[in-house]
Backbone:
């Protein structure tokens, strides 16, 4: 367990295994705790680095999350990559973490070997995003398993973290903020768009959106699992690990 400094606050990260460095970026309301569950699938092949973005998990708390949260998380990812001083790293971003991963590579292509962008809506939020988010969060707070998941990831103050996250996402949607801070066709880092056809948390036309994004990137692949919930990194854990190892290895050895 360790910390690095970002804008005067302490950001938590934890490492597993050895090999080529691979940073796992968690989604909204989650934390590095979630990725700990799949480390046995990766730690023999990679040096796995798990981060808690500011305001989440064991990192310092914040008064508010930025409506440009995924860009701010990209800057935290860049700060971690620089802190590690281990040369180029690869990124796995799942759900909200996928936007952070793409933004990080758009900002600093010199730092990253490859990106896996898993289970996210792509270039825009789906048209019913705000209504769906409010309904989902209300139901989650009333569901024992969801409450236990939030507490597992965030600790005793989980409800405050979830409320701040909801507030920031609603503002992002209301103001129609750009999800990528640079055009996608400027992405030079190889990217794998990954997801599940059964994922009810993402847009209905995920495959179409992924293929359109891939067409704008110089080195890209798209893979959708036929089944599995949100996110596919966990619902199709073993198959995802195999796919990700193969994708990253082809660019590490080039």
Residues:
């Amino acid at each position: 367990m360790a910390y690095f400094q970002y804008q005067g606050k302490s950001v938590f990260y934890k490492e597993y295994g050895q090999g080529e460095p691979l940073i796992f970026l968690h989604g909204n309301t989650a934390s590095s705790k979630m990725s700990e569950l799949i480390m046995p699938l990766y730690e023999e092949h990679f040096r796995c680095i798990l981060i808690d973005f500011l305001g989440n998990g064991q990192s310092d708390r914040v008064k508010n999350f930025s409506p440009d949260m995924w860009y701010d998380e990209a800057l935290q990812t860049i700060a971690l990559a620089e802190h590690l001083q281990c040369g180029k790293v690869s990124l796995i971003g799942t759900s909200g973490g996928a936007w952070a991963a793409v933004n990080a590579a758009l900002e600093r292509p010199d730092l990253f070997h490859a990106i896996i962008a898993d289970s996210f809506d792509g270039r825009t939020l789906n048209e019913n995003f705000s209504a769906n988010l409010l309904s989902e969060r209300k139901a989650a707070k009333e569901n024992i398993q969801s409450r236990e998941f939030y507490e597992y990831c965030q600790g005793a103050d989980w409800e405050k973290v979830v409320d701040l996250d909801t507030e920031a996402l609603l503002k992002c949607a209301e103001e129609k903020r750009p999800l990528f801070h640079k055009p996608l066709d400027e992405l030079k880092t190889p990217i794998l768009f990954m997801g599940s056809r059964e994922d009810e948390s993402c847009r209905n036309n995920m495959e179409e959106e992924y293929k359109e994004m891939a067409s704008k990137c110089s080195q890209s692949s798209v893979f959708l699992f036929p089944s599995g919930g949100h996110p596919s990194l966990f619902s199709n854990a073993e198959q995802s690990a195999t796919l990700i190892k193969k994708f990253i290895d082809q660019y590490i050895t080039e």
Notes: Residues 2-252 form a domain with the Rossmann fold fold (CATH 3.40.50.1820). The CA atoms of residues 96 and 246 lie 23 Å apart. The chain has a mean pLDDT of 96. The chain has one domain: 2-252.
